[in-house]
Amino acid sequence: MSQIIDRRLNGRNKNAVNRQRFIRRYRAQIKRAVSDAIGDRSISDIDSGERIIIPSKDIAEPTFRHGQGGERNIILPGNEEFVSGDQLQRPQAGSSRGDSQASNEGEGNDQFSFQISREEFLDFFFDDLALPDLIKTQLATLVETRPARAGYSQQGIPANINIVRSLQGALARRIALGGSKRRRIRELEETLEKLARNGGDNEQKKTLQEELRNLHKKLKRIPFIDDFDLRYNNHIDIPKPITQAVMFCLMDVSGSMDEERKDIAKRFFILLYLFLTRQYERIELVFIRHHTSASEVDEKAFFHARETGGTVVSSAIKLMDEIIRERFSHGDWNLYAAQASDGDNWGDDSPLCRQLLDDRILPQLQYFAYIEIGAQPHQSLWQEYCQISDKHGHFAMQAIASASDIYPVFHKLFKKQARG
Amino acid sequence: MKTQPISSGSEWTFELIQRYDHEIGLLADEYRLDTYPRQIEIISAEQMMDAYSSIGMPIGYHHWSYGKQLLQVEQNYRRGQMGLAYEIVINSNPCIAYLMEENSMMMQALVIAHAAYGHNSFFKNNYLFRAWTNADAIVDYLIFARNYIRQCEERQGETAVEQLLDSCHALMNFGVDRYHHPPELSLLQEQARQEERETYLQSQVNELWRTIPVAATANEHRRRRNFPEEPQENILYFVEKNAPLLQPWQREIVRIVRKIAQYFYPQRQTQVMNEGWATFWHYTLINTLYDRGLVDDGFMMGFIHSHSNVIYQPPFNSPYYSGINPYTLGFSMMSDIRRICEAPTDEDRDWFPDIAGSDWLSTLDQAMRSFRDESFILQFLSPTLIRKLRLFNIFDDDRKQRLEVTAIHDEHGYREIRKSLSNQYNIGRNEPNIEINHVEIEGDRSLTLRHTLSQRRPLHGNTTEVLRHLARLWGFTVRLETVDSRNHVIKSQECPIKASPE
Question: Which of B256, B266, B277, B322 could be disulfide-bonded to B145 (CB atoms 3.0-4.6 Å)?
Answer without folding.
Answer: B256
